[in-house]
Amino acid sequence: MGNLAQKLQEEQQFQQQQQPVQKPKKVSERKSLLSPGEKILGIAFAGAVFLASSQIVSNQASIYEMNAEIQKTEAGIQNQQQVNADLGIQVEELSRYDRIRKEAERQGLVPNENTKVVND
Length: 120
Hints:
single chain, 3 helices, rod-shaped, 72% helix, mainly alpha, 120 residues
């Protein structure tokens, strides 16, 4: 039986020698989806978008501030117009002929023949 075991061993060695030697698989390197130039262009584009968007936000903020200032100014103008209208009414009341005549008499002035009434 020793001879039989030796034959089996030789056959196994012979089969192993005849089997093609498997080459180790190459480890494939992951290739980047973007080339370095494309990466630089992408970063530049992202930077440009960021700068443009920040400029837009800045402009909108300044427009908002300007609108608020305009509204405050318009409110001040309306208040002043109301004050002017009230003062105009007061001027009309104080410049009535009856009132002026009474005030003149109170201060000792008397109308004479040469006094004339002038209306606007």
